[in-house]
């Protein structure tokens, strides 16, 4: 049942001359399609992020009342896609840096472990009691120094991939334009005299 809640996510936006400026940073003098999104608007969209799952489809539903409001659709959509493309690029760069740093840390840790496991026992004679204690300490040290890079490389990839997937869904979400429904007025009732 919970899967059905997250299969289709609709983000509703009202597009007209009065609301369009609220979607953008008020201090940005760029043309409307190149403007930065306002923090409040980004927060509104990102509030949907926790409910976006791998199998979810995201759709922007733009509410336009008149034909003149439709001229704001393309610049708004372009700004949203550009904004989240930039966020995705930043997150991909962070992920690449994360992987590179942890692979380098793992390689360095292996070199240190190999040095201590290969060279240090040669310095101490095996007949001494200190050799046994030092050997046990080296085994523990080896596990400790290798644990963090291995843990990060195995378990910490998913948050990066999830955020990249969310940004990808927000970039490629289809746009549906809906018109505001007119209020139904009750029909006059004729009274029989």
Q: How do the SSEs run, as a string of H and E?
A: HEHEHHHHE
What's the main sheet like? 3 strands, parallel
Q: What value does the Rg take, in angstroms?
A: 29 Å
Q: State the helix count.
A: 6
**Beta-strand level of the residues, as a percent range?**
5-15%
User: Uncertain segments of ≥5 residues (pLDDT<50)?
Assistant: 182-193
Secondary-structure class: mainly alpha
Average the pLDDT over all residues and give the rounded result.
81
Q: Report helical residue fraction.
A: 40-55%
- Terminal CA distance: 56 Å
| Global shape | elongated
Number of strands: 3
Largest sheet: spatial strand order: 1-2-3
Walk me through this protein's architecture.
The chain has helices at 2-5, 39-46, 73-118, 120-123, 129-155, 158-172; strands spanning 8-14, 57-64, 175-179. The chain has 193 residues and is mainly alpha-helical. 11% of the residues are buried. Helix 3 (73-118) runs antiparallel to helix 5 (129-155) and helix 3 runs antiparallel to helix 6. It is built from 6 helices and 3 strands.
């Amino acid at each position: 049942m919970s899967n059905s809640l997250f299969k289709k996510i609709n983000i509703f936006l009202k597009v007209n001359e009065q609301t369009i400026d609220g979607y953008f940073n008020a201090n940005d003098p760029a043309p409307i399609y190149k403007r930065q999104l306002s923090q409040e608007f980004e927060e509104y969209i990102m509030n949907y992020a926790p409910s976006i799952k791998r199998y979810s489809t995201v759709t922007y539903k733009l509410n336009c009342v008149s034909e003149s409001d439709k001229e704001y659709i393309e610049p708004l959509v372009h700004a949203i896609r550009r904004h989240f493309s930039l966020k995705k690029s930043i997150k991909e760069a962070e992920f690449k840096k994360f992987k590179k740093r942890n692979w380098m840390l793992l390689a360095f840790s292996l070199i240190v472990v190999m040095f201590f496991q290969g060279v240090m026992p040669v310095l101490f004679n095996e007949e001494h009691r200190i050799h046994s204690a030092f050997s046990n300490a080296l085994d523990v040290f080896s596990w400790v120094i290798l644990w963090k890079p291995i843990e990060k490389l195995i378990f910490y990839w998913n948050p990066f991939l999830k955020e990249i997937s969310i940004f990808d869904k927000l970039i490629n979400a289809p746009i549906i334009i809906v018109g505001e429904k007119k209020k139904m007025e009750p029909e006059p009732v004729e009274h029989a005299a």
